[in-house]
From TrEMBL:
Residues 154-317 form the Integrase catalytic domain. InterPro entries: Integrase_cat-core, Integrase_H2C2, Retrovirus_Pol_polyprotein, RNaseH-like_sf, RNaseH_sf. One of its GO terms (biological process) is DNA integration. Signal peptide: none annotated. It comes from Rhizopus oryzae (Mucormycosis agent). SUPFAM superfamilies: Ribonuclease H-like. PROSITE patterns: INTEGRASE. One of its GO terms (cellular component) is nucleus. This is Integrase catalytic domain-containing protein. GO terms for molecular function: nucleic acid binding. It holds the Pfam family rve.
Length: 390
């Protein structure tokens, strides 16, 4: 018999007595990343689902709730919506930064647009209420939002196919920059509401033709129709010859009924308002910030269609800055939503759904004695950027 003990099998390692405690310890040590108490219970259950609780009723309740929640390797909590969309449940300490990112960083749009953007990537129990309060208390939005007034509701010429019609218009003049840009030339694809815009030096027919050739028709192909107002920059021979050469039917709005081009007029206002808020402290860089404002609008969901121009054009949602494997699970939008658009009953029904907006539009704003209000001062020297509120 050998005096040396037999060599132990390398694969037969002793079991670590603390192995099952590591996940629970991580949860306890992660106090800075706390969620609400109910979510903390759910996370603890997902970490150790077979742990005994005080009562069987608690176990059953947690099991039922936990079906719609997941954990990743870092113990971040996710919520599953309708078995097709996985979103991160942000930690309490991170939520203010997330609200700033989705609102301030994406054009300072309103409550519903901000909520729609946040809802695609994040969730927490009081998210909607916090979005509402954040937008309501946003200083830039308070100072630079338009004063509510009654304007004519626009009517749109119906379109049935993608790239069938572009509507085009000039915005400005703006403060002249180092690049000598004074205007924005904006075109809108009328089916998807996808905006294309460029800061330009001049508002003339040569600029219009260059823009249509370089930014529209060599990118998306020639459309059947082009809709514009009766300005000289659209009615010149150069524009007419260009449209004729590409077999595009150029349609004009009536001088007494500009609402025919209501879509581009509406988007004009949204783009300018967003640009004013984004460039509030740096007016001299408005042309540099234009692409940022355009991207924010392109990825903003329409209030009725519930889809962004990006989704309508490409069929998928844009990837977020923080790309995550679990979030990839819910990136692609369902075909049932696209079929809603392809049938085009969606935009036909839009006019029916638009009626409540008409009724809301006719309501007067109410101001009570003692309410704090903002006084708007109009300075005509610079139409776009010198609306000062104090």
């Amino acid at each position: 018999m050998s005096r040396y003990p037999p060599v132990q099998n390398e694969s037969s390692e002793e079991e670590d007595p603390f192995h099952n405690m590591y996940p629970a310890l991580l949860v306890e040590l992660n106090e800075r990343d706390q969620y609400e108490p109910e979510l903390m219970k759910l996370r603890a259950y997902l970490v150790k689902p077979h742990a005994e609780s005080e009562t069987e009723a608690n176990d059953a309740k947690l099991r039922k709730k936990a079906v719609n929640y997941r954990l990743d390797e870092q113990l971040n909590l996710y919520r599953l919506f309708r078995n097709e969309r996985m979103v991160l449940i942000s930690k309490i300490d991170d939520r203010q930064d997330i609200l700033m990112q989705v609102h301030n960083g994406h054009g300072h749009y309103g409550q519903e647009a901000t909520w729609s953007r946040l809802y695609k990537q994040y969730w927490w129990p009081t998210a909607y209420e916090e979005v509402k309060e954040y937008v309501r208390s946003c200083h830039e939005c308070q100072m630079l939002s338009n004063v509510p007034n009654k304007v004519a509701l626009h009517g749109n010429v119906p379109v049935n196919h993608l790239f069938e019609r572009f509507a085009i218009d000039y915005i400005g003049p703006f403060p002249m920059m180092k690049k000598k840009n004074k205007y924005i030339l904006l075109a809108v694809e009328c089916y998807s509401r996808w905006p294309v815009a460029k800061a330009v030096k001049y508002a003339n027919s040569t600029t219009t033709v260059d823009f249509m050739y370089n930014e529209l028709f060599t990118v998306f192909g020639a459309s059947k129709f082009l809709l514009s107002d009766n300005g000289l920059h659209f009615t010149g021979n150069e524009v007419e010859e260009f449209a004729k050469h590409l077999k595009i039917k150029h349609q004009y709005t009536s001088p007494y009924h500009p609402q025919t081009n209501g879509m581009v007029e509406s988007i004009n206002g949204v783009i300018v308002k967003s640009l004013k808020k984004t460039a509030r402290e740096h007016n001299e860089y408005w042309d540099t910030l234009l692409p940022t404002v355009l991207y924010a609008y392109r990825t903003k969901a329409h209030s009725i269609l519930k889809l962004s121009p990006y989704e309508m054009l490409f069929g998928v949602e844009p990837l977020g800055v923080d790309k995550d494997v679990l979030q990839e699970y819910g990136r692609k939008i369902g075909f049932e939503r696209l079929s809603y658009l392809q049938q085009r009953n969606g935009l036909q029904n839009f006019m029916v759904d638009y009626q409540p907006q008409v009724e809301a539009h006719d309501q007067e704003s109410k101001i009570n004695v003692g309410d704090q209000v903002l006084l708007l001062k109009h300075h005509r020297k610079n139409v776009v950027f010198t609306h000062v509120i104090k």
